[in-house]
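Action item from last meeting closed. Structure (300 res):
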């Protein structure tokens, strides 16, 4: 549980995408409740990010990597840095650089954390282009490998008008989650075997197994830039896209990492069903996307 005097340490992992990082940091400057520390982990950016951080954001703590940290390694580097300096009542807040927190975002996270001791608190991700909810309260059916969100795709205004201050969620995304320092220290690092995707979900599931609560603060809103992660190439013009979508660590559909997630997070009785359904669904989805793009490219 945070207190009024507790420090809020916000960590933003980055690799290139300089302009998105700038917008994210400017949004953090506009917070009604300023973060105590902003830590940017610059993992080998080659697009001028380092110079931009030095000249425009001298107040930011910059930790550097060589390009091989990925999301999880960057978060764990910041975790170690914060744990050496944080007080017991502080909080560690993860944030992606493709997000722009609204001005009351951090204040809302803290208020919900204060009201709910021993709880991790997540944010509502809103598609910047459409105003619709990208993610809020997520649940996993382990037997069918279905990830569901009753608010996903709905207009964000409906959530503000109809939902309570906080929603239960089975998992929390790395996009805007407050983790009490006591939880950060007790749970250990984010899973290194999940370098880019799913380590945030696995960490929150691990926290739940240890008795920590899981909530989403409905007023803690992040505007998310569309289509900024994963594979960027056009499957219609790239013969290797299908294979990489099922293998590359840049892809959320990479089967080897989804299998690792199942081993770490899925309850043992449901694991065979989860792996079978999840693999079938991912392969069929990637194949359909590939064929659909190819057919569209052949049209006159």
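Sequence:
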């Amino acid at each position: 549980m945070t207190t009024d005097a507790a420090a809020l340490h916000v960590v933003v992992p980055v690799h290139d995408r300089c302009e998105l990082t700038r917008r994210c940091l400017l949004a953090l400057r506009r917070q009604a409740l300023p973060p105590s520390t902003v830590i940017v982990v610059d993992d080998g950016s080659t697009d001028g990010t380092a110079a931009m951080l030095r000249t425009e954001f001298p107040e930011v703590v910059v930790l550097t990597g060589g390009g091989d940290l990925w999301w999880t390694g960057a978060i764990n580097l910041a975790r170690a840095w914060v744990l050496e300096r944080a007080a017991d009542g502080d909080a560690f807040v993860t944030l992606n650089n493709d997000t722009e927190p609204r001005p009351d975002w951090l204040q809302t996270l803290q208020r919900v954390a204060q009201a709910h001791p021993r709880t991790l608190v997540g944010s509502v991700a809103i598609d910047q282009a459409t105003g619709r909810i990208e993610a809020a309260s997520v649940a996993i059916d382990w037997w069918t490998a279905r990830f569901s969100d009753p608010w996903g795709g709905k207009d964000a205004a409906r959530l503000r008008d109809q939902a309570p201050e906080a929603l239960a969620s089975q998992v929390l995304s790395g996009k805007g989650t407050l983790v009490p320092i006591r939880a950060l220290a007790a749970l250990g690092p984010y899973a290194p075997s999940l370098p880019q995707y799913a380590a945030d979900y696995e960490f929150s599931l691990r926290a739940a197994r240890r008795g920590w609560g899981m909530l989403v603060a409905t007023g803690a809103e992040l505007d998310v830039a569309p289509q900024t992660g994963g594979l960027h190439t056009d499957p219609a013009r790239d013969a290797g896209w299908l294979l990489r979508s099922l293998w590359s660590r840049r892809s959320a559909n990479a089967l080897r990492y989804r299998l690792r997630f199942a081993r770490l997070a899925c309850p043992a009785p449901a694991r065979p069903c989860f792996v079978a359904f999840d693999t079938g669904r991912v392969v069929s989805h990637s194949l359909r996307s590939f064929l659909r793009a190819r057919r569209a490219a052949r049209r006159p």
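Note appended to the action item: The chain has two domains: 8-224, 241-298.
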